[in-house]
Amino acid sequence: MTDPRISNEALKQREGRNKRAICNRELLLLSFICGAEVTIDKTKKTSRAKKVFVGSSITFDGKYSTNDILENAYFFECAVRTLWKKAKASYETTLTLTKEVVKAEIELIRQNPELIKVLSDDFKVRSSEYAVNSVGKRRTKNKEAAFSNFLAYKLLMNGFTLTCQVSAQKVTTKTLNFYTWKSYKAPNGVVIKKESVEVLTKALSKEIKQRLTKEATVKITPNILSFIGAKYLIEKLGLHTIDTCDPMSAFKPCNNGIVDNDFSFIKLNHLHPFTPLDTNFM
Q1: Residue 241 reports pLDDT greater than 80
Q2: 15 or 205: whose pLDDT is higher?
Q3: pLDDT at 279 over 70
Q4: Residue 210: Cβ within 10 Å count
Q5: Rounded to whole angstroms, how far apart are CA atoms 141 and 174?
Q6: Strand pairing of 94-97 and 161-165?
Q7: Distance between CA atoms of 162 and 23, rounded to whole angstroms?
Q8: Distance CA 149, CA 165 (A)
Q9: Mean pLDDT of 159-173
């Protein structure tokens, strides 16, 4: 039951935070499938809403520090904000982003800094440094938004297509906007809807939280996928190949991804609501 002492505004904020946390976990899941390694810091515990995980460094087609994450996330935010405003002005209900569209918009903004000044009328975070130096709740929100938006940006650069619902996406003016995604399309064309990975994102969150109870900072590698039973999703997306020839190595490079020998010992397919004939995760 809902606590009668909690205002409707507080409930609305909690619902929004829960949506952002779920999106954060989806982005982490797909990033690990792409081979990312993330150093996650322990943050303040909360019983009021789901936790948004924030990484201080990421290895994802290169190594990125906090400042790298913020800079890339900032230009991504500028680009998506522009595209979102255009979509809203055209009365479009969804905004679909691809590598080509986002990359072209980012390059245009980088080459023409005056475009950021145009955005600044309704976008008061004028630089990545400003985001870093923001204090209090704004600083926390900026870090969470930057981290998750960076993951979205890297997935796009790796061939994913991301879709958000324009009418339901609130655009903030004093912080980096935290875009939440309605669905994801893998490079092989398979569409991943939120409901189809709910079991995996819950398991991922639980595993990360357990590790953070022991350490203030934990490095999460793609090996975590073997603990949450993600074998079927990995095979479906065609981003990894399973190899059981070398039991001495949990992960090793291959031509089309990362090999995880631990998967040969994981039999959790019954957890996932997919059938072998699915081409579109429903």
Answers
A1: no
A2: 205
A3: no
A4: 11
A5: 10
A6: antiparallel
A7: 12
A8: 16
A9: 84
Specify the length of the chain in residues.
282
Residue 230, both tokens: 């993600």
Tens of pLDDT, residue by residue over 64-89, are 998 889 889 989 998 998 999 899 99
Q: CA 68 to CA 20: how far, in whole Å?
A: 22
β-bridge pairing 251-254 and 217-220: unpaired
- Rounded CA-CA distance 117/91 in Å is 25
Q: Torsion-angle region of residue 154: left (phi > 0), alpha (psi -120 to 50) or beta? A: alpha
Token pair 């209900």 in the structure block, residue: 93
Q: What percent of the chain has pLDDT over 90?
A: 48
Q: Is the pTM of this model over 0.85?
A: no
Asked if residue 192 lies in contact with residue 186, where contact means CB atoms within 8 angstroms, the answer is yes
**What integer pLDDT is reported at residue 35 of this predicted model?**
94
pLDDT class of 249 with cuts at 50, 70, 90: very low
Alpha-carbon distance of 157 to 99, in angstroms, equals 5
pLDDT of res. 142 = 83
Look at residues 214, 216, 66, 248 and name the one whose alpha carbon lies nearest to residue 142.
Answer: 66
Domain layout of the chain by residue ranges: 8-224
Convert the chain into a string of H (helix), E (strand) and C (coil): CCCCCCCHHHHHHHHHHHHHHHHHHHHHHHHHHCCCEEEEECCCCCCCCCCCCCEEEEECCCEECHHHHHHHHHHHHHHHHHHHHHHHHCCCCEEEECHHHHHHHHHHHHHCCHHHHHHCCCCCCCCHHHHHHCCHHHHHHHHHHHHHHHHHHHHHHCCCEEEEECCCCCCCCCCCCCCCCCEEECCCCCEEEHHHHHHHHHHHHHHHHHHHCCCCEEEECCCHHHHCCCHHHHHHHCCCCCCCCCCCCCEEEECCEEEEHHHHHCCCHHHCCCCCCCCECC
pLDDT at 260: 33
